[in-house]
Amino acid sequence: MPDERLARALRARIRRKILKEIMKDEKLSVHEIAERLGISEYNASRHLKLLYDLGILDYEVKHPEKYYFIKLRSLKDLFEVYERVVEELRRMG
């Protein structure tokens, strides 16, 4: 089910960080993501593939790199609500 796959994909902190980085610049290469987050390009590629396969990301090729971008416009709204909920939980507890 798409909702379960989305929840599983976004559960991983590193994937949320990847998505936030892409949202900042609109398009990023595997190399740029790996460098910004201090992870290997292999690791970044694995997470990007999962997000791509789920339909959250798409990419364009500008030889020799793939540049990933957010395919779902509503993802930014989801992240904003998520951050508000996290902040509210922090204040409560």
TrEMBL record:
The keyword Chaperone does not apply. Residues 1-90 form the HTH arsR-type domain. PROSITE patterns: HTH_ARSR_2 (PS50987). SUPFAM superfamilies: Winged helix' DNA-binding domain. Pfam families: HTH_20 (PF12840). Keywords: DNA-binding, Transcription, Transcription regulation. Coiled coil: none annotated. PANTHER family: TRANSCRIPTIONAL REGULATOR, ARSR FAMILY, TRANSCRIPTIONAL REPRESSOR SDPR. This is Winged helix-turn-helix domain-containing protein. The lineage of its organism: Archaea, Methanobacteriati, Methanobacteriota, Archaeoglobi, Archaeoglobales.
